[in-house]
Design a protein that fits this description.
It contains no helices and 14 strands. It is an all-beta fold.
Length: 171
């Protein structure tokens, strides 16, 4: 059974995968049936549960001789989408935007944050609505778009002087 961690309600359309088998919950109870699992051996299986709008979850389950899985309920947490906009820059993928899913009311994990590049510009920070957004400390409560802010490249003028202090060239 796949349920919403907040409400305890079943999730219709949730999928569960164990090994090569995948099954879908086709009712509001979130009930999922997988057939032909090797039961009675108390061998742990990784079970992956997914549903639109939720963070994927992987749990280890034991399949008993009667075919019942322990645990028999998998809780999924609602997800928020975070769109990173490189604002003229690009990510390693070559794209100027990337989206990650974050559990509602949780912070963005460090591995999910990629600093983009933009020629000679230096990445300064992420902003939400023109305000600095601390991705390590601020919990995500809804879908958001974070925009990269860039520091202009430094420029310098060099003047070459002769032995008398007279300019010879500048660059």
């Amino acid at each position: 059974k796949v349920v919403d961690a907040g409400s305890g309600n079943g999730i219709n359309g949730a999928t569960v995968t164990v090994g090569t088998q995948t099954a879908t919950a086709n009712n509001d109870d979130g009930e999922v049936t997988l057939k032909n699992l090797l039961g009675g051996r108390d061998v742990p299986y990784p079970m992956v549960a997914k549903a639109n709008g939720y963070v994927d979850s992987t749990v280890m389950v034991l399949v008993k001789a009667d075919g019942k899985a322990i645990p028999d309920v998998i809780n999924l947490t609602k997800a928020c989408k975070v769109l990173f906009d490189a604002d003229g820059g690009w990510f390693k993928s070559g794209y100027d935007q990337r989206t990650v899913s974050v559990a509602k009311d949780k912070t963005i994990q460090e591995a999910q944050v990629e600093v983009p590049s933009k020629g000679d510009y230096a990445f300064k920070e992420w902003q939400l609505g023109g305000e600095k957004y601390d991705v390590k400390k601020t919990a995500v409560t809804k879908d958001i778009t974070l925009k990269a802010v860039w520091a202009k490249p430094a420029t310098a003028t060099f003047v070459v002087e002769d032995a008398d202090g007279q300019p010879v060239a500048s660059a």
